[in-house]
Amino acid sequence: MATTQISSTSTFLLGGDLQINRLGYGAMQLAGAGVFGEVADRPNAIKVLQQVVASGVNFIDTAAAYGPGFNERLIADALHPYQEGLVIATKGGFQRPNAQQWIPDGRPEWITQNIEESLRNLKVDTIDLWQLHRIDPNVPLEETLAPVVAAVKAGKIKHVGLSEVNVEQIEQAAKVLPIVSVQNLYNLGNRQWESVLDYTVEKGIAFIPWYPLASGPHTLEEKISKIAARHNATTAQIALAWLLKRASNILLIPGTKSLAHLEENLKAASIELSEEDFQALSK
């Protein structure tokens, strides 16, 4: 199939030293039902990951909890030895006893285990970006981050981020070690973390929306459809293009198991929304 090469001009400097193409890839869908166990069609999943990199994507998001472990090992099997400049971000801090449960676990011993297993699963000596998947309300954040600080000092982690946090929590963590990314739920239809996004813009921190493809409530559908028609685009592409225009520190990680859908997502990087289109969608 013809491949879309994403624009290399739309980049963000993560942590001051990692040049990231702002349209990346989220690997969460490449796992079993409920993000648990092995992906059903592993050969296809490997093809998708290889096509991701061939298309110019240099930022892939995964997590220890996806599988758990299966997703990280799949990425290594598909892409190791890694292409120069490819950044693989992973996360730790969840227990996954079964497909239904996501239990935050910020105990230092569990965080240490997550980090060591991610290093082995991904076949790397250093994790480019390690993110705390959730803050455990039962463990002081400083205790949770202590093994992360140790891993940074040991060269096992280069940069650190957080997920699903408020501004106060970011500032609390930043007293322990530098925070370069925040991964919160955010999309055209759900902007509950608007204040966090604005804070990350101000501080030069990357903002990585998870579930970026939700296109919003029914009231937005007509607006999106009209704008999509003008751009000869899909509603999903417009939802991604809106995020890229919303703030220059947003890194997108849409996920898919489909090569065709991957191609569609990547084309969003070439859609330039007018200010009028952007404002119409933002209301």
Tell me what you see in this structure.
It is a single chain. This protein is of the alpha/beta class. It has one domain: NADP-dependent oxidoreductase domain (TIM Barrel). The protein has ten helices and eleven strands. It has a seven-stranded parallel beta sheet with strand order 3-4-5-8-9-10-11, covered by helices on one side. It has a two-stranded antiparallel ribbon with strand order 1-2. Helix 7 crosses helix 8. The longest helix has 15 residues, at 108-122. The radius of gyration is 18 Å and the shape is globular. The chain starts with 10 loop residues before the first strand and ends with a helix. The relative contact order is 0.14. Pfam families: Aldo_ket_red. Keywords: Oxidoreductase. One of its GO terms (molecular function) is oxidoreductase activity. Residues 22-281 form the NADP-dependent oxidoreductase domain.
